[in-house]
Design brief:
This protein is mostly beta strands. The protein contains 1 helix and 2 strands, in the order αββ. The structure holds zinc ion. Zinc ion (ZN) binds at residues 26, 28, 30, 62, 64-65, 67, 84.
Length: 86
């Protein structure tokens, strides 16, 4: 039986398979993105250390409009005002 790919598994693709795949674009039409960091302030009440901590989150932003395409917000952690469809 052929093993099916799951998110998190390394993906092995041929150049042709990549070539025929749909380009990811932002709602503004741009297809260029860069990685940035956002931080959440973790309150001392819920922080494992018992102190206020900064929690870094790696986010992908559009090079053109500076917003985060919804495709790059799978866990819904990015506030609405930073999303591209807003
Ligand atoms: Zn954009």
């Amino acid at each position: 039986m052929e093993k099916t790919w799951k998110p998190g598994d390394p993906m092995r693709l041929t150049m042709d398979q990549i070539k025929i795949s749909k380009q990811v674009t932002c709602d503004c039409g741009s297809a260029m993105f860069s990685e940035k960091l956002m931080f959440k302030r973790i309150s001392s009440i819920i922080s494992p250390s018992g102190r206020e901590e900064l929690y870094p989150m790696q986010v992908v932003v559009c090079e053109s409009c500076g917003k985060v395409p919804t495709e790059f917000n799978p866990y819904g952690l990015i506030p609405e005002e930073f999303l591209a469809n807003n």
